[in-house]
Amino acid sequence: MPAASAIVGRDDELAWLQQSLDPEAAISVLLSGDAGIGKTRLLRELTARAGAQGRLVLIGHCLGQGGQELPYLPVTEVVTRVQRAAPEVFAEVAETHPRLAELAAGGGADTATEPARLAEGVHALLGRLGHRQPVLLVIEDVHWIDDSSRDLFTLLLTRGFAEPVSMVLSYRSDDLHPGHPLGRTIAHWSRLAQRLDLGPLPAAEVRRIVGSVRGDLAEDEVAAVIERAEGNAFFAEELTMAAGLGEPVGADLARVLRVRVDQLEPRAREVVRLAAVAGRQVSHDLLAAVSDLADDELDEALRAAVSHHLLETTADGYSFRHALIAETEYADQLPGERRRAHRRYADALRTDPGLGGAAALARHAAAAGDLATAITANLEAGEDAMRLGAPQEGLRRFERALGLLAADDERRDWTTLRAATAASQSGDPNRAVQLRRERLEDPSAPFDPVHRAHLIADLVMDARATEQEIDALGLTEEAVGLLGPERDQLRLWVLRSRVQALVDARRYAEALQLGEEALALTDEVGLPREAGELRAILARAYEAGADVAEQRARLTELAAELDGTDQPAQIRAWHQLGSLEQRVGDLAAALRHFDAGIRAAHRMRRVWAPWALDCALLGALVAAQLGDWPGARRRVAVTGDPPPQPARALLEAVPFGLRVAAGEGTPAELSRLRQWWSAESLLVVLTAQPGMELFAREGRLDAAENLYTDALDTLNRLWGGHSLVGIRFSAVLLGLLADAAATAPSGEWDRLRRRGQQLRRFGETLVTGSEASFERGGAGRDLVGPEARAWLLRTRAEALRLELATGADVDAEELDAAWAAACAAFDRDGEVLELARCRARYAEVLRARDPGSTAARELAEQARAVAERLGVRPLLAQLAADRPASADVLTPREREILALVAQGRSNGEIGKQLFIATKTVSVHVSNVLAKLGAANRQEAAAIARRRGLL
Questions:
Q1: What is the CA radius of gyration of the chain?
Q2: Which residue of 315, 570, 692, 745 has the fewest C-beta atoms within 10 A of its own C-beta?
Q3: Mind listing the pLDDT tens digit for each residue in 545-567?
Q4: Contact partners, residue 640, CB within 8 Å, separation at least 6
């Protein structure tokens, strides 16, 4: 695995070890860490640097599996290396210390009578080498060191060196159980040397390792490897390769993990295997209940497992030091052995429920073949999880119950309803819809009008949060027809879904009429909390004929009434109020309302439920627009279990956009997010702009144009028509085309100009078409809000900039007015970064006409202040390139040549036209590049155009 062998995530540790390479250093270091944590890679990098810096590197290895029976094994390796690398030094020292020659010849040494003399000889040899050149001595795996070598290195550490001889001794800390022969020695060595203990790698670094081994794993597979590896580099590599082969744990890793278990005596080994059946953790009482050992025998066995670093004690029991140890020991058991152990656990849990919860009973009962108990326990565990605000765990439990229930079991409908509810609350409405649709469309399912009506009602409500198409009007009409005469909770839920379907179809009069009936029913059946949800739905119908002030007043009243209650409808109310303020351009007010929705969701433990996730995303987006980038990241930060896809991708999209704006981000990140476009339209909205900017920054304008087309096509397919977000996409692509035109050959100008004209027409058409649609009676007024209008003005300004960059005649006053209007619009809208970008472009326009323009300088400084505060490096680079040049920055001849360079002429062509030598032209071009700070001819032409030098 050469790709994975590079050191990852150990920069700080390597920098700390680097002190041992100082030319005058004589430092001793004890390097410790678990097996596979990265000690060998770190030492490999250290020795490579030492060699490059002129140190003589000497490496000795201690070996297990019999290596401890060979005295002075690592010392012999080092002495032999010295004999070959510095024979004259070796011969000189060996004259006074003859035991060195015997050791190097493979004859060993008289360990009974000569250890002190041999140690003196090794110390003298290293000192003499250090006098000639700095030395780095590395001894690996000293947990396997033989007794003779251990005593010799104790002497070396005690005496130290006056010469620049540094030593690094590495060992596995997890191998040092209390009875280990090196235990006391390490305590003594620690007083003589500095210590460096390698801890687990951060998740981000483990992700890098996974990517270096295999770059084609799905995100859920990568996340699983990161979780299971627990920061261990070797574990991460082995698990990644095993994932590629479809194996739970690779053979090499399993072999490593079993070594310490095999060192235990039989009784302790059996206790470890029994504990592995429980999983990562097990309480002492539960383990005692399933074990056949007496209390003192069990304690003795557990003490051995703890001392060998297999188990660790917890408050009430034991936990495997690494989850993979439990997995490996469990997998190593025979099927019958495992089943019997699970049965013992299930019996103990059934006899005394206080030993563990329903979830544990469900797992053991299923593995033991007791399906009836497993089903009941899973259902109970699912309800427990829902009560505790853990819908993801609830979903897992309900789905496991569904997997065990017979096709004709009458509990399938109810369990499906509960599983779908859990999926919805955990941020996975797609799964919720899928569960309900599968049950509704199952031809083998017994017909139950009550359950069918309930499934339809919930399906219609959750499908709105997905891109899945359903016939909401037809389904809700069917559900109403399935109702009996009872005026009960089911009728209320069905009517609510029908009202929602009517509102979505813009049949507002019918929705209001049916909504009044449903509101009256909430009082009859004693469910006032349902009234809040209904009023939130009906608010859309009331908005249809109301102005903004009326809409705001109605939603504010509803949100205030629900605030602080336990009604989930308040999250929707805050979302609708925030969305209203966002549409009319009051971003500060919108952010306050979205944040209120976020707080309500956290209070009710519905963080990823419908509307709650939207409040987090839109709140983050608005915070970013207002220039609060840390606040934007904070609002979408995941604490605890992340939501499923595509919700997880949505949360990653906002920080991805900020990274791209700052000059970071990678196409690989975009690709991971882009795979979820067809499942979530908002993801297209969040990633298309940074994706285009990312590709253009890499010089891949064609990829940026393809992404633009793909984004519009995807939204058109998902939304059934073009959206106003297309104006923003068009403006962004226009700007990128204008940037490219500044350095493009003149032969490309016609194509770029035609493409720009298409983009401008498309943006204008979107606005006029949308306005015409709402004149005919759309869903509300002023859909073409301040943000869309600002981007339309930006589209016009960028189109003129592109015309100018491609050699067209552009009216200076028109260009000036276009950028002034765009700046004013984004200033009113409150989008900090986009306003800074507009000001930078406007400054460029003004400076092209008047290099000394005061207004241009002020605009540029305003833009620079924002770019510096937010860390937007691409904008800072643009502003630096656009700084005004002094009048004499170029000589007249250099200006003349630069003008021809900008036309795409070669040095030879320029020389013929100006009647000068090609070599002379080359000298002038080099001077121009240096004066303008340009990397190449194209960049020089672009800078000159921006500075008004042409």
A1: 36
A2: 315
A3: 667 888 888 888 888 888 888 78
A4: none
